[in-house]
Amino acid sequence: MRKLKKGDHVVVIAGRDKGKKGTILSYHDDDKLLVEGINLVRKHQKPNPNRGIDGGIIEKAMPIHSSNVALYNPVTGKGDRIGFRLLADGRKIRYYKATNEVVDI
User: Fold this and answer.
1) Residue 91 banded pLDDT, cuts 50, 70, 90
2) Structural domains in the chain (count)
3) Is residue 24 assigned to a domain?
4) What is the pLDDT of residues 14-47, one digit of tens each?
């Protein structure tokens, strides 16, 4: 089970976009993830009329390492570390380490 999942709200804790918040869109490899509106780069793109792609300069989100983001805790308003707990019925859940609240059931 991963500490961060697709659809989680995260905050960037290191790098050029430090302090920005976004939602995880997808995973690239085991340790890189694509976050909405984070790590945007400008890419020069050639036109391809067969695919209907216009040429020019586009902004594209690039993957960011998972160690540079933390799960956003709405109670504290900051990024928080995640721990795992086993429930009585044997299910494994995630919880915020600062407040001991369950992330999702």
Assistant:
1) very high
2) 1
3) yes
4) 999 999 999 999 998 889 999 999 999 999 999 9
Q: What is the phi/psi pair of residue 14, to 5°?
A: -155, 150
Q: How confident is the model at residue 59 (pLDDT cuts 50, 70, 90)?
A: very high
User: In angstroms, what CA-CA distances link 80 with 45, 75, 97?
Assistant: 38, 10, 7
Single pTM value for the model: 0.84
Q: What is the CATH number of the domain that holds 58?
A: 2.30.30.30
- Residue 38's identity, in one-letter code, is I
Give me the residues paired with residue 27 across strands. 33
Q: Is residue 100 part of a domain?
A: no
Phi, psi of 68 (to 5 degrees): -95, 5
Q: Who's near 97: CB < 8 A, 6+ residues apart?
A: 80, 81, 82, 83
* 84 belongs to a structural domain: no
**Can you give the pLDDT at residue 38?**
94
Range of the domain at 14: 9-74
Count, residues in the chain = 105
